[in-house]
What does this fold into?
Amino acid sequence: MKLLQLSPSELRTRLQESGIWLRTGPFSLRIRSRIPHVAEGLAELYGQFETRHAHETFADFHVEVNAPGVLRRWLRPQVDFSFDGQLPFKPLPYDQAYPMLEWGLNWCVSMHAHQYLIIHAAVIEKNGGAAILPAPPGSGKSTLTAALALSGWRLLSDELALIDRKSGLIHPLPRPISLKNQSIPLIRAFSRDAFINRPSHDTTKGTVAHMRPPTESVRRQHEPARPAWVIFPRWSAGSATTLAPRSRAQTFMFLVQNAFNYSHLGADGFQVGTRLIDEVRCYDFAYSRLDEAIEAFDRLAARAPDGEA
Amino acid sequence: MRYRLKEYDAEAVAFDTASGDTHYLAPLALTLYRLYRDRPGLSRDEARTLAARYHDVEWDPSLDAQVDETLEGLCRIGLLQPE
It folds into this structure.
């Protein structure tokens, strides 16, 4: 069954007791929480995801987001993220419970899923070709990813490119897209189809909210994609839309320096990374207007394996 | 073989199986690596001349310094053996 088939009270009860079991891409999660914002965020953003009874089913990651001890709860309301009973992070303000769940889930995957080379990058796909978008913070990666996902591209991930070490294919993990600060009103204005949950303010990244992944991307979350491009987006005000080829060797170096587990994989990581670069075209992409950016991506996709040209 | 090398046009990346480090080889570094790989015992003067010819540049003192510095770097990471 899908999560949206649970009533709000059933969702809250399960979260507080045995937990909610969810399938996201190749991973299964068991989430427990007594915090209303967490229940609200899951109901709003994960409605299309498969769920089962948590006590009947194996889960890869067992996580909890809850308030710590009673005294601290009253002095300064906070939340803890726990993974298998361990606390990998310091507590955050209570209002940040939902983003903390998302950040914690990213941490679970990036620290444990070594069957993949995991690169810090967004991935979107069209016509059978996947575009990997690695970029430093502030480059407009998530904003562009959200706009593309709302414009006919399939969302594979906003944060974690999972490169299968055997096949070289990219496995989807189409969880909510994290939007920050000005990106939130910008994406709301970009499309009426965008659902963005309540923002959390004053986080280490500023104001943060999450956009619901498109239903079609969730429906196809078990369908891997062949990498076709590595594109470094860079938003700057007034910039013309340009797509310029970039060095493949330097692209390789950037990707492995921004991979979570490259050093852990040793020579195999090198082999997986070089095979990826062999399969893709590498570009720098400058833009200031989302509509022009999408047109440029669509022109690329027309030359993809299943494209028209 | 200690190193795994992957060449991309005029550049390369190299993985050191001993240390786990990965290095980027810029065009001059890759040229010098290839020269010494294909012609062991090459003198430094010959390497400078051949590298300048390969990259189609006029000799000048700064090129000598660049070649020396790059060779030292390649030796330091163990991709070339010191003369």
